[in-house]
Amino acid sequence: xxxxxxxxxxxxxxxxxxxxxxxxxxxxxxxxxxxxxxxxxxxxxxxxxxxxxxxxxxxxxxxxxxxxxxxxxxxxxxxxxxxxxxxxxxxxxxxxxxxxxxxxxxxxxxxxxxxxxxxxxxxxxxxxxxxxxxxxxxxxxxxxxxxxxxxxxxxxxxxxxxxxxxxxxxxxxxxxxxxxxxxxxxxxxxxxxxxxxxxxxxxxxxxxxxxxxxxxxxxxxxxxxxxxxxxxxxxxxxxxxxxxxxxxxxxxxxx
Length: 255
Fold this sequence. Notes:
By secondary structure, the protein is of the alpha/beta class. It has seven helices and eight strands. The strands form three sheets. The protein has a four-stranded parallel beta sheet, sandwiched between helices. Strands 1-2 form a two-stranded antiparallel sheet. The protein has a two-stranded antiparallel ribbon with strand order 6-7. Helix 4 packs parallel to helix 7 (211-229). The chain is globular, with a radius of gyration of 19 Å.
């Protein structure tokens, strides 16, 4: 199967092509939970409604509308992250940002998590939206595989990414190609050669020399820099993937 000899963008493009082919036989008038965005790749669809998931007019999870001005006597936390933060599979009230708000007095928590985001997209969403809420604290929900998402330009759809540039990072694949773009099949003629290349990439990927670690460090540095520039404290909350949830030793990602 393709996942055995494809990696990176090629793997995700092939998966997208197969999904598109399968969905061509199914018709649905239900709106998708996300929409295309030229800067971020995709964002939550404003005013989306379903039995369990609601998105407000500003693209944040939940029904409540949070104006830019904080109500007198309240504080505000803004959380950015991926599907763990957004709360894929649970109701509005069962997301961890909603649970956090229940625990705190006179604090409003704004959930800016987005399904499938890497840390790169989280940085861009922070810059665009987080500080418009005048937060007293920013939390970044960090999931281990976000590191791998930071070095691809295509996942469930085309996405922006950063490359190393001197001592900083440079944004590439921006503006993001729109969904009408036809992505050619990445399947190679010589699958044996492709498998060897993928094996080599995966071996490197498990070492400290993999570019994803330095890219992620610099993206997190940029997140911290944005918060310092706005005089807002930053908290990073780490979520291990399922295989590591009961591992007492720190993972490579945690370190």
